[in-house]
Amino acid sequence: MQRPKKRFRSRDWFDDPHRMDMVGLYLERWMNSGFTPEEFRDGRPIIGIAQSGNELNPCNLVHLTLAQRIKDGVRDAGGIALEFPTHPLFENCRRPTAALDRNLAYLSLVEIMHGYPIDAVVLTTGCDKTTPSSVMAASTVDIPAIVLSGGPMLDSYADGELAGSGTVIWRNRKRLGAGEITEEEFIAAAAKSAPSLGHCNTMGTASTMNAVAEALGLSLPGCAAIPAPYRERGQIAYETGKRIVAMAYEELTPSRILTRQAFLNAIAVIAAIGGSTNAQPHIHAMARHAGVEITPEDWMAAHDIPLIVNMMPAGKYLGERFHRAGGVPAVLCELLGAGRIDGSVITCTGKALAENVKGAHSTDREMITAYDKPLQEHAGFMVMMGNLFDFAIMKTSVISEEFRRRYLCEPGREGIFEGKAVVFDGSDDYHARINDPALNIDERSILVIRGSGPIGWPGSAEVVNMQPPDALLRKGITSLPTIGDGRQSGTADSPSILNAAPESAVGGGLSWLVTGDIIRIDLTTGRCDALVDEEEIARRKKDKPPAVPESQSPWQEIYRAGVGQLDSGAVMELAVKYRGIAKKTPRH
Ligand code: FES
Ligand code: MG
Asked: In this protein, which residues make up the domain named Dihydroxy-acid/6-phosphogluconate dehydratase C-terminal (predicted)?
């Protein structure tokens, strides 16, 4: 293949006339993998493959085999591929939460890409935080980078019905609480919801963040939605490997792709797909590392975008059907047609977004609807504020009709709800007391959880989707309004007000709230306030915020000392000033 002559940064390692001893040392051990000295010395780009698959993170396991197809593509395009592991990020199993490790995976990936002779990188993504952590790192280092999603699992069924990952857990947890199913039936349904390799097949955080990567222009068109076991998944891995070599020559770096407009496009896509509320902190984190400012107004500007993807938890179907209907390109096509995104942004293909998705219309209008025949109006997140927090969000696309009727339809006060706060300090407290009759929880109660933010937990926990006490479940009340300074699973369909910042651990408004206070939620203005007078608030603020558990590991302590709040992405604040660090090769 004819390529223009180009000197890559890896040459700084291999072309050092003064330090042949060092060059020899680098090469000596690479020979262990069967490479020859010429391969490293003839000027080809070295392509890192950031391998996120491992047995601690089953959602990304498919990448262990996909890596070979990436390498085939890299080699055929004239590069050298070197695969290396990333820090495991398994959503369901990492305690106290995988969110604690998003920034750790980010930091380690930055060091690898900066400190080794890597000219461009393939970021393998899948499970929730694997996407934002690697995109954040790519911005900090700013070498050409492309995202390869691993893809969702196949559609899963239980008792002849679609049973989406995560969603099946939250729904059956309620049925278990109401005494409708046994523990064995609960576990059996959970097992059936995971029929193959791949990440969650609902529009949870994983599918959302992979769609976001594609919407940002970081992966090849169609990449996000191809199910993990499909033939096309191997094919796009090969194409991704080929494309990253070209990107290395074109110096198509994240800083050229991750513009403010690209992020606004992604925010529009999150609304249209009914995406996870976790996308909010991840968007802010990725944007801040890219040097882009995203404001609450940017989220509200997308609030009126309708839901056009019929996927759980906001809709009915799962990932296979989404892919067959046209996936992310079909969604982009609708949004472009409606003038809701900017098609001129440059993407990893080297072309504008609009060019990538030209003619990519939905082939299944039950799954991906036309923009003007949506499943629901106003599917974007609603930004809330008031005396309990400066910032929180609510995913209005999952508010059920029954919930709307129960809470938001009082004649003359539509959209306004007042209820009595029942406050829990973290999830242990919630589990210990939720069924305590002395709390008098009824359908006019609002469940509040605090101590679950980045510093309080630490890491910020997915605990705000609290279910009502068993007694209410048995009466058919399956959700109450909830508020919290933590997050909730992207697969949950709970109408929560979450990601509240500042969190109670740093003295945010939830820290002075007490059980019995009346809270007013006004969805017409985006206000959420405790109806407590100023003097009383000032008096309560003199007390210390509720205690948080002590750090159990060195990283927890480092994290707590350096992390910001969810409204600004919960990044390591000191890291934000480092951008484009690949320009300076580290000393040896
Ligand atoms: Fe990993 Fe859902 S738990 S993708
Ligand atoms: Mg999760």
From this structure: 367-570
